[in-house]
Amino acid sequence: MCAQRIIDPDVVIVGSGPAGALIAKQLGLAGRKVLILEAGDRLPPSINSYMERFLNATAKVPESPYQPDLFTDGNLTDPATVNAGRPTVLTLSPNGGFGAWQDPKQAYLIQKGPLAFASTYERVNAGTTRHWLGTSLRFVPNDFEMKTKYNRFVDWPINYSVLEPWYGAAEHEIGVSANVQQQGYLGITFEPNYSYPMPGIPESLVDHAVEKAMPTLKVDGYGLQNIDWTITPTPAARNSQPYQSRRVCAGNTNCIPICPIQAKYDASVTLADAFRTGNVDVMYRCVASQVVVDANGKIAGIDFIRYDTIDGPPVERGQVKAKLYVIAGNAIETPRLLLMSKNGGRTPDGVANRAGLVGKYLMDHPLYLAWALAPEPIWGYRGPLSTSGIEICRDGEFRRYRGAFRIEIGNEGWNFPIGDPYTTTVDLVDGLNDSGLNRDKEALYGSALTTALNNGLSRQFRLGFLVEQSPEDSNSVTLSDKCTDHLGLPRPQIRYDLSDYTKEGFAAAKATASAIFKAMNAAEFTSPPAPDDPTSFEWHTFEGPPGQNVRIKYYGAGHLVGTHRMGTDRSNSVVDDKQRSWNHDNLYLVGCGSFPTVATANPTLTLAALALRTADHIVKNFPP
Amino acid sequence: MTALTRRNVLSAAAATAATAVGPATLPEAAAAEAEDMQLFVTLSAAITGIDAKILAPAVDPIDIKRQYFKVASTDLAFCQILKITKDAPNPAAAADRVMNNPEPAVKYLGRSIILAWYSGCWYKPETLRAYNSPNPPPPPVNPDKVISPAAYTQGWMWRVAQTHPMGYSEWRFGYWATDPPPLDDFIGKHA
Question: Which residues of chain B lie closer than 8 angstroms to A202, CB-CB?
Answer without folding.
Answer: 174, 176-177
